Amino acid sequence: MSTTKIAKKTFPNWIRQPWPSGKVVEEVKSLLGDLNLHSVCQSAHCPNQSECWGRKTATFMVMGNTCTRHCTYCAVNSGRPGELDLDEPANIAEAVRRLGLKHTVITSVTRDDLPDGGAQHIADTIQAIKAVSPETTIEVLVQDFDGKREDIARIQAAAPEVFSHNIETVASVFPRIRDRRFTYTQSLDVLRIAKELSDGHFIKSSFMLGCGETEAEIRQTLIDLKEAGCDAVSMGQYLQPTPKHHPVEAYIAPEQFKIYEAMAYEIGLGFAVAGAFVRSSYRSEALLESDYAKARRERKDIDPHAD
Ligand code: SF4
Questions:
Q1: Whole-angstrom distance, CA of residue 224 vs CA of residue 185
Q2: Superfamily of domain 23-302
Q3: pTM of structure
């Protein structure tokens, strides 16, 4: 595995991305401000903002930007979240309509303080978007709801085109960087349940590389995701948000990412994207535009019960 172990504060030459700027970024920022909305693009300091927003896709973070859990690699604030904004579903739908988004991702912090973990609020957001912009495809990128089937069912009942839950890393690294309320096996169970309840929609997961995993462990995680019913996977380089966060243990070379992308297809996943700046929702509409998705839709047109 060609990686680069390097000293602090220096990045390999492929970790270069222009800071998000330009008219579309300012437009989206002001609209989000007007509608009191959060985008994970901003909270997570995502390097792809200008590209994604320029392509009429955006990721909204619902239920505030304070998480009840604390993962050591995550830039989102941890603590006691505020009240749910019950106007949020309608405001996000309005933002989607005004921006003319063809695809959007709804993600969320973890809300252990809510009885259903916020599942109904996410379902309401999906339905609000489908009511005002039925052409917009929707991916939900959600937490684990403590593995509770009834909460996952609320979301799948709203029929997002893609259900996504990140495994985030390989099994051995998981307990070192993920909040202790998450477990590797429970995250696989969440994907398995979502698949059972998916009615032919897509299941996806993502994980970071550069956190101390081995090539064999990456292969095993891809196998685990395939067996859990995943159609799609994305893999990206972990980048340390601040010196207080989990350290980067290796920088994965672009050609090595391509090897892992090919490995995902060899293992039988239907769609895979891997690269230094690939993030869970980066180019997430590409899955729905893929030959794999087209073939699935054609099969379903012939036989609605086909997988
Ligand atoms: S659960 Fe998600 S939002 Fe919360 S700290 Fe972990 S990664 Fe960040």
A1: 9
A2: Aldolase class I (3.20.20.70)
A3: 0.92
